[in-house]
Amino acid sequence: MGRSPCCSKEGLNRGAWTAMEDRILKDYIKIHGEGQWRNLPKRAGLKRCGKSCRLRWLNYLRPDIKRGNITRDEEELIIRLHKLLGNRWSLIAGRLPGRTDNEIKNYWNTNIGKKLQDKQSRSLSNRKPSNRSQQKANPTIETSARLPSEAKLTSCVIRTKATRCTKVFINVPEPQLEDTYKPSVLRPFPLPEEPESSEFVPKEDNDPSNLMIDLEVDENFLSEFLNSEFSQLQPSHFQNKGDSYSNSDTCDPGQYSSTNSDQSLFLSNDMMQDADFTSMASLMESELDWLQDQADPN
DNA sequence: AAAGTCCGCAACCGCTATTTC
DNA sequence: AGAAATAGCGGTTGCGGACTT
């Protein structure tokens, strides 16, 4: 399906915005509101493409943008949310009022990701001589955009292209009849400050017992999930597409796919003591409770 | 003081999902 | 039904300031 470019690039300004342009855009949106980005530049008299205007507004000019350094609390929240959501920066930003996805993404790439990587490499070198394959096997290394593609395969949440999340993949655990859910298992990968020898022992990703269920999630499910009372969500939000372990849309869990169809929020085997919806909801509810507490202790 | 390097951030790019016609 | 338009997302780039040599 051919698409015309969002704007004709001829005669348009590029690069940093001037104070004048900012003012024009701000004033225009104050009067006419957001939206209609394609037509906005022409109407406002800006020599910018609509996309650029939208980005400038969302990431910089919006009145509710919080400026200033990311606090320690915010950083911790970002780390937690990133463990839960992967590189879904807009979802993470949604839990941090006043922060933009771009800001969080940049912060992650320049600060947190680097810290985690340093910690990781230090702990690896303390244990054994550095070994690429060992580093690759450790899921706590979340790679930044600038890392080579090989390194990206180490991540537990793989999204090679910008897509909206419409599916949830769950590893079905082996039957553990007596096990009941323990909140601690919700954090499948040790936090940076947690010792590696916690009770969590990652399973081999290519363990064939890790069946995957491709759950089709209805519209905006994840946002709903994050913003709603979990008790109000119904199992009907999911439609089991069946055994997708061998589904061509998915991939061998040990060789995370880099195809377009990979839109998974990956919940590891150890996050799930039970594969049914109730357990999944309670798992996420518990984690979100914790996050809520951090964001708003009252 | 000048040149080179590093790093953070804003902006851009290419893509998909959704909506509209 | 399907093409086009629009909105939104995450990855990547490049500018400019800070720092080092």
Automatic annotation (TrEMBL):
Region annotation (Disordered) ranges: 115-145, 236-261
Stored SUPFAM superfamilies: Homeodomain-like
The UniProt record lists the keyword Isomerase: no
Gene Ontology molecular function: any one: transcription cis-regulatory region binding
Compartments, record wording: Nucleus
Entry-linked Pfam families: Myb_DNA-binding
Keyword line: Activator, DNA-binding, Homeobox, Nucleus, Repeat, Transcription, Transcription regulation
Database matches in PROSITE patterns: HTH_MYB, MYB_LIKE
Claim: Cell division is one of the keywords in the record: no
Biased composition annotated in UniProt, kind: Polar residues: 122-143
Organism domain of life: Eukaryota
Residue ranges annotated for the Myb-like domain, each copy included: 9-61, 62-112
InterPro entries referenced in this protein's UniProt entry, alphabetically: Homeodomain-like_sf, Myb_dom, Myb_TF_plants, SANT/Myb
Domain HTH myb-type residues, every copy: 9-61, 62-116
Biological-process GO terms, alphabetical: cell differentiation; regulation of DNA-templated transcription
GO cellular component, one term: nucleus
Protein name: Myb-related protein 123
